[in-house]
Amino acid sequence: MTSRRWVTVAILMIVVVPALAGTMKEARADVTADCEFLEISAKAGGKPAIDAELSPVEKKLKKPPFSTWNQFKLLSRSQKSLVKKKAEPVSLKIGAATATLVEIVDKSKVRLTVTMDDEKGKQVANNTTTVEAGDYMIYVHPLANNDGHLLSLTCK
Amino acid sequence: MSEPADARSDLALMEYADGETGGQPGGQPDGQINEATAAAVVAARLARDPDARVKVAAIKQVGELVRGHLELSADAVHDAKFAAMWRRIDDQLEQPATGLWARVSRWFDRYRGHVITGAVSAGAVAALALILRPSTPDPGIPGRNAAAIDVRPVALRATPEIDSLDTPGGSSTVINLDDEDGHTTVIWLTPADTVEGI
Which residues, listed in sequence order, are joined to residue A77 by a DSSP beta bridge? Predict the structure, then answer.
């Protein structure tokens, strides 16, 4: 191939590749879900106490099966914009977690895959659930001292 | 010998010494005498006139001095000066454009056909890419710029569906809670080494 043909090819690449990349990026960016994660420490103590930041789930925490404990403390809170089929790490104070948006179903439901590891790095849960936007999922992992480690999530 | 005659005679000798008269110190015009005759005349005069011999020798000496001085002066000029001089001459003969814009213009002038071909092809491909891309990524999957996922009223929400649940090294219990805020799915994980469950 002569150098002049390379010039033509180079011009094609310069113009076309960004255009295609932009199109693909836009297509990828379309499928997302915004999710909120609350990491909660649960204990049984003398005086009931629930952190003010836990108000979205406060009513739920006062009912069984969470009534095993009466003190709930927010350990961490994170907002994640989940991209379809991309595992997003969720920062936790105890252990680790990931969340993956599998797909959006019927415009109002999200199919999520959530994994949880304990503080030793051992996976304790790998779950895929289809849940309505606005509803909650709460993972409960009892600890050795009868305390609880909770991970709450909701998407919309 | 009168003064004008002496001056004319000296001038003839100088011309002879410089070779300008073709070896005719006698001042004979138009080559009326040939070289052999002129040489004979000069030889005869030089033989009989010591002053003439001294003058010819002096003129030759002065000529050598001047020639040597000029040659030394020419040698003293550095070659780089000559090179620079030639460059200036070349620049004045042909003024090439040296700026960035001029170079770019020259490049486009040189490859004008290819640039136009490439641009038209690229535009066509980009247009095809824009036309053929899906207008909606997936049926039922709203875009980020469109409305977010629909949050339906609680009464219309479906019960959560567990598609898969693995609890390596333990067990799990799924509890569905319903209240005025919607559904809550509780997944209670029970490690295998836990003595007491829920």
Answer: A38
Share of chain A above pLDDT 90, in %: 53
Any idea where the domains of chain A sit in the sequence? 1-30, 31-155
In B, residues 119-178, which contact A (CB 8 Å cutoff)? 119, 121-123, 125-126, 129-130, 133-134, 137-138, 140-145, 148-152, 154, 157-158, 160-170, 172, 175, 177
B28 versus A65: which is more confidently predicted? A65
Complex ipTM? 0.80
Which of A134, A147, A116 is CA-nearest to residue A36?
A134
Residue of B114, B126, B198 with shortest CB distance to A65: B198
Closest CA to A148 of A46, A45, A79, A16: A45
- Sign, CA dihedral A9-A15-A20-A25, equals positive
Mean pLDDT, to the nearest integer, of B146-161? 82
Q: Do B129 and A23 touch (CB under 8 A)?
A: yes
Which amino acid, residue B42? Answer: V
More confident residue, A150 or B18: A150
Considering chain B, what is the average pLDDT of its residues? 76
Write the single-letter amino acid at B112. Answer: R
Contact B160, A131 (CB under 8 A): yes
Which two tokens mark B160? Answer: 């959560």
Among B178, B22, B94, smallest CA distance to A132 is for: B178
Residues A70-85, mean pLDDT to the nearest whole number: 92
Check: pTM over 0.90? Answer yes or no: no
